[in-house]
Design a protein that fits this description.
By secondary structure, the protein is mainly alpha-helical. It has helices at residues 11-18, 26-32, 42-54, 58-66, 74-77, 83-91, 99-116, 129-139, 144-170. The chain has nine helices and no strands.
């Protein structure tokens, strides 16, 4: 971490604090550490984290996408989501699906993963179940490269929302 007079944070503390911003991908925070000027400037962190992900190998970005849970999937039912993912899905009402909506999510999850080889990713915090299902139904017709890039873009949105929530919590 560059010393600019801002409160310095040790690598381990930094990775503990920001390692969950990108789902199951602490490597993003770890790689960012040496370039961080102010560990509390969420906007700068968001840009730095995006740059690290965008410059990562295809395989690393694919693993990042695959680290995301299905929407209304088995992990949600079993209570195995990360706290952040659980909160995000709950904010969109996914935890309150009707049986028909739940079945539709399962069908779409399966078809999407069959086609693309990774889960459908969407920043759902300011959406509802109908909007998410509609986006799912549109995006499943996209090409693989377009959907890969869209998934990474949605992951960046999720990360920014998580950083913004940390900023609100800190103040």
């Amino acid at each position: 971490m560059k010393d600019t007079g801002a409160k310095i944070m040790e690598r381990e503390e930094f990775v503990m604090r920001y390692g969950g911003v990108y789902e199951h991908s602490q490597w993003v925070a770890d790689e960012a550490f040496d370039e961080v000027v102010d560990p509390y400037d969420m906007d700068s962190l968001a840009m730095l984290f995006c740059e690290i992900v965008d410059n990562a190998s295809f395989d690393r970005r694919l693993a990042l996408i695959r680290g995301h849970p299905d929407l209304a999937g088995r992990a949600a039912v079993a209570g195995e989501l990360s706290d952040e993912s659980g909160d995000e899905q709950a904010s969109a009402g996914i935890d309150r699906c009707t049986p028909a909506e739940f079945a539709r999510f399962q069908d779409l999850n399966d078809a999407y993963k069959e086609k693309f080889g990774f889960p459908f990713v969407m920043a759902v915090r300011f959406s509802n179940r109908a909007e998410i299902i509609s986006a799912f139904e549109r995006r499943i017709h996209n090409g693989a490269e377009e959907e890969f890039e869209r998934a990474v873009s949605e992951i960046h949105k999720i990360a920014k929302l998580r950083l913004d929530a940390m900023k609100e919590y800190d103040h």
